[in-house]
Amino acid sequence: MSNTSVVSPYESSDYPGSGIAESSGDLAAVFADTDVDRAADRLAAEARAQQVTADFARRRQLESISVVSVDLHLGNAASLLRSAPAAGFRIVRKLPRQKADLHILQSDHGDRIVIEQSRGGGVRVHALGSRSPINDIVRRIRSI
Fold first, then answer.
1. Which DSSP string corresponds to the chain?
2. pLDDT one-digit tens code per residue, 45-63
3. 3-state class of 8 per DSSP?
């Protein structure tokens, strides 16, 4: 009778039911799946980084744009909206809001303005960078 035993950091290959892989082909598939998962994770991380960069660039661009706002002495925007086509603007969208309705107008040249009709009365016009599109429409009110 012997009191010695073999101690090894490795399990014996005759261990029943190891179950992870029955052949070296199964092990290769496990490693291949891991590589695919790593590649997918890397692509997802790159996509997130590109999105963050694009969002940052857009925010910086929007911060550099100046909006010119002009309050007009009008009770409502009807006459202003009627004069818009004579100035080369057309209404592209109407956005009803709780405190004011917004009318987005665009010219044939691509200039956009926003006419804000307050629920309490009063009109404010917004343009990007320059007051000239606002002046074009306001001048046309007198000619209607």
1. --------SS--TT-TT--S-SSHHHHHHHHHHHHHHHHHHHHHHHHHHHHHHHHHHHHHHHHH--EEEEEES-S-SHHHHHHTGGGTEEEEEEEE-SSEEEEEEEETTS-EEEEEEETTS-EEEEEES-SHHHHHHHHHHTT-
2. 899 989 988 888 888 877 7
3. coil
Task: Tell me the torsion sign for CA atoms 62, 68, 69, 72.
Answer: negative
User: Of 107, 120, 118, 140, which Cα lies nearest the Cα of 69?
Assistant: 118
CB 141 within 8 A of CB 83: yes
Global pTM? 0.54
CA distance 70 to 122: 11
